[in-house]
Amino acid sequence: MGVRVLCPELAEKARLELNEDEIKMNNAIQHIKDWIAKQPHIHARTDDQWLAAFLRGCKFSLERAKEKLDFHYTVRNTATDLFRIKHKDPLFHEILGLGAVLILPKLAGPAEPRVAIVRPGKYNPNKYTVSDIISASNILQKIIIMEDDNCIVAGIRAVLDLEGVTLGHFMQMTPIQMKKLVVSLQDVNPFRMKGTHYINVPPGFEMFLNAIKALLNEKSKNRLFVHNRNYEEIYKYIPKEVLPAEYGGEGGTVKDIIEYWEKRVEGYSEWLEEDLQFRSDEAKRPGRPKTAESMFGSDGSFRQLDFD
């Protein structure tokens, strides 16, 4: 079907920041398709729009895009707990209804980043795991890759609201889970993270933040901001018009946003069902197969990928 045409403002941003032009896009997509066809271990999507997202996320570096695609499908195979929940599972709709992850529909402008709010305090750690929340949010992220040009080109800003977070939430964050969390945010998808803003932080949060920083690349470390309860400070980065009413904004209520995503997932149901087949087959990988232990082993070693 080809690649969706960007609005003029976003097209200019893609040209200036991602080195994009139509000829480069067409040639790069064909190159990636040819490369995928030669990889015995990768069963991947080859939709033009899907591949364009990975190229944009890697600023049209073919080698980085290929590495990221390989990594994306490898993690589906080696971290199955992050992908175990399916869009038709009652558990998915249950978690979506909690509002623990909110990808905001409104934008501050035609070439502005997407905004997401993560609210771990909204799920009961005695009932759900952090892997459950990530697994459910990965369904939304697949849709974002396919349809959200602002997220892919302009990037995404995250607000991490820690209101209501308890010791039970922190106890779930084992070293391996932290590694998987960082991978899911930083390395698996072609998103350009433009900053993470922490609000309503509990006592002792600094120790947790330092543990996360140890796993991040330098670029990601420099994009962490702690505002605590200073919402006025947040508004300097994220305008009120995109935020939910519960955060003093004009972007609808949390209930409105949850209903919006319920409809988006329903519209993508057939596509999401088809997407379940794509992953790596490590038995066919040239060289040494990747395993969960080799990627997330508890020895503390973890390769940091440096994608923008």
Keywords, separated by commas or semicolons:
308 residues, alpha/beta, Phosphatidylinositol Transfer Protein Sec14p, 2 domains, two-stranded antiparallel sheet, 7 strands, disordered C terminus
Could you explain how this protein is built, in words?
The chain is α/β, with parallel strands linked by helices. The protein contains 15 helices and seven strands. It has helices at 8-18, 22-37, 48-57, 62-78, 90-98, 130-147, 149-154, 167-171, 175-186, 205-213, 218-221, 231-235, 254-267, 269-275, 292-296, and strands spanning 42-43, 101-103, 114-118, 156-161, 193-199, 224-228, 279-280. A five-stranded mixed sheet has the order 2-3-4-5-6. A two-stranded antiparallel ribbon has the order 1-7. The model is unreliable at 299-308 (pLDDT under 50).
List the helices and strands and how they pair.
Layout: H1 8-18, H2 22-37, E1 42-43, H3 48-57, H4 62-78, H5 90-98, E2 101-103, E3 114-118, H6 130-147, H7 149-154, E4 156-161, H8 167-171, H9 175-186, E5 193-199, H10 205-213, H11 218-221, E6 224-228, H12 231-235, H13 254-267, H14 269-275, E7 279-280, H15 292-296
Parallel strand pairs: 3-4, 4-5, 5-6
Antiparallel strand pairs: 1-7, 2-3
Helix pairs in contact: 2-3, 3-4, 5-6, 5-13
